């Protein structure tokens, strides 16, 4: 898939609703931060030096041995894309919102299936990431590690014997790794336990972020849980800790869902039914309302209350109804009110098509 195809398709492998524990774990991500030796960190780079980093990455991913091991990654400079296309890459979670700042100096290398990518000149020279559906942190780490080895064969990384990989922000020094899971936790929200659960997570060396990462709000009852510390722990230990906490969260979420279904079945079915009804018939819809209703509908699918809607459609709709995708679909700039009208229209069309399949 070329980058142009990537930005015209809302679906991505990581959101296909497959993978272990996919009823609650939407996706797993592992990223590592790497920098090239003898060059200032990105925020201090001149335009020429930033281009030098991009060229070095281009050459490294073009290496035949790397391609044999991890596949082909296409490098795209962000200034080759339109503003809408750049925003779509954020909406698909393939790049972070930060990569859009000073985008003239930045690039992304993307594997065809969108599972592996490298952000170039974000906070660090390289951010290697792998995104997979469901709970697949070990697999994601294996893929990132393979890509890292392949790049390190030709790139000279900034590395200190004592500290490990050197990074722009001290919180990333060491392994440079952040592992995360995106969890759908409507049960814990509905039984009012979410605050307590999230507070406990902080005590276990983990942190909770919103849908689009650092500094963003949780929406649609989706929470991103990741490790806080990168120094002094082996990558495998960081991942094992996150898996173990995720499993506890899964048990708590499932218990909450069961309790709701046992004790408040009618209210739950009513909530799901209303969400489905509004999504099917509304004529104007804000993205906040859509996210709330998608969450209820998804819970209904997971509990078997709604049978004819594939869970992957909900994720596709979450991306498709974001502002940049709506502009792409309609082919023109939209006012906020027009956006709400098109969003509702698109949701109606997609849901009725799914019902007829
Ligand atoms: N498990 C996940 N599934 C899908 N997308 C994710 C997941 N974890 C993170 N992301 C996406 O990756 C991007 C970056 O997230 P975030 O800011 O949390 O991490 P980071 O940039 O690696 O960390 P740091 O703040 O240390 O630089 C965001 O768009 C976020 O939505």
From TrEMBL:
A motif (RDXXRA motif of the pArg binding pocket involved in allosteric regulation) lies at residues 339-344. Its EC number is 2.7.14.1. Pfam families: ATP-gua_Ptrans (PF00217). InterPro entries: Arg_Kinase, ATP-guanido_PTrfase, ATP-guanido_PTrfase_AS, ATP-guanido_PTrfase_cat, Gln_synth/guanido_kin_cat_dom. Appears to be allosterically activated by the binding of pArg-containing polypeptides to the pArg-binding pocket localized in the C-terminal domain of McsB. GO terms for molecular function: ATP binding; creatine kinase activity; protein arginine kinase activity. GO terms for biological process: phosphocreatine biosynthetic process. It catalyses: L-arginyl-[protein] + ATP = N(omega)-phospho-L-arginyl-[protein] + ADP + H(+). Keywords: Allosteric enzyme, ATP-binding, Kinase, Nucleotide-binding, Transferase. It is an enzyme of class 2 (transferase). Residues 24-256 form the Phosphagen kinase C-terminal domain. ATP binds at residues 27-31, 93, 127, 178-182, 209-214. One of its GO terms (cellular component) is extracellular space. SUPFAM superfamilies: Glutamine synthetase/guanido kinase (SSF55931). The keyword Hydrolase does not apply. Catalyzes the specific phosphorylation of arginine residues in proteins. Belongs to the ATP:guanido phosphotransferase family. HAMAP family: Prot_Arg_kinase. This is Protein-arginine kinase. It comes from Desulfofundulus thermobenzoicus.
